[in-house]
Amino acid sequence: MRNASTPVTDRDPRLTPARPDLAAASLRGLVEAPLYVEGTVYRVVHATAPMRSEPSPEAPLTTEALFGETATIFETTMEGWAWGQLDADGYVGWLPAEALGPVGPAATHKIAALRTPVFPGPSIKLPPSALLSFGSRVNVVETRERFAVTAEGGFLFAGHLVPLEAVETDFVTVAARFLGAAYLWGGRSSLGLDCSGLVQIALTACGIACPRDSDMQEAALGTAVPFDGDLATLRRGDLLFWPGHVGMVEDPATLLHATAFSLSVMREPLAPALARIETGGTPLRSVRRL
């Protein structure tokens, strides 16, 4: 987020829990509002919770919260919408209130598979109640043979879980697991994600804090690397930024990204990709190295 001394007119509305009619109590004295609210922390209890720009199912999807993530909610409407801020990356918007529940016991594990079913008992033949995506957080209370049992009574294959504190070592490898996944504007799950969502999920898995949108990532991540078109100067893991898009270098000849071009997460030769995107009117803007 921006520094607290930043004038309200300069605050990024995506990260600022303030509206003309109310604001978070933490912004008192910084933002003018007729009502300040402390907010209540809730946990996401659906496999994913869509965050939208307005309290309507037809409003654009701005991001998603995964099972077990938390959000601070400042208002819940009679129509079933909750306005608040995601605790992981600070994003602000509207969530379906039905997707939220009490915080409950702290998470102990996270999903390390692309997605895993939640069974009502210790059998893979039982109909699952949900499919949890990579990065979702659960509280495991016991283990029964091959299954981890959650505080809610769900049974997950223990081999698909890792301790919450576990970190991956190569975010490019993490991103490559999503190859073929659908491109979804605002998505952050294995069922659909966008370019910056892929980067955020991969970096977070490696213990690297990462903002949500590509412009935020360009401003916050790594250091700028001069690039004159010589692909040999690029390294694995370099992040390439265009206006409204981000991809990562898998090797100096290969780009890995979630793209609307194929509506999927894809791997493609870097040189033709750079030419195609520039021909479309968006030349490469910067290269950032972590």
TrEMBL record:
<comment type="similarity">
    <text>Belongs to the peptidase C40 family.</text>
</comment>
<dbReference type="InterPro" id="IPR000064">
    <property type="entry name" value="NLP_P60_dom"/>
</dbReference>
<dbReference type="Pfam" id="PF18348">
    <property type="entry name" value="SH3_16"/>
</dbReference>
<dbReference type="InterPro" id="IPR038765">
    <property type="entry name" value="Papain-like_cys_pep_sf"/>
</dbReference>
<protein>
    <submittedName>
        <fullName>C40 family peptidase</fullName>
    </submittedName>
</protein>
<dbReference type="Pfam" id="PF00877">
    <property type="entry name" value="NLPC_P60"/>
</dbReference>
<dbReference type="InterPro" id="IPR041382">
    <property type="entry name" value="SH3_16"/>
</dbReference>
<keyword id="KW-0378">Hydrolase</keyword>
<keyword id="KW-0788">Thiol protease</keyword>
<dbReference type="InterPro" id="IPR051794">
    <property type="entry name" value="PG_Endopeptidase_C40"/>
</dbReference>
<keyword id="KW-0645">Protease</keyword>
<feature type="domain" description="NlpC/P60">
    <location>
        <begin position="165"/>
        <end position="290"/>
    </location>
</feature>
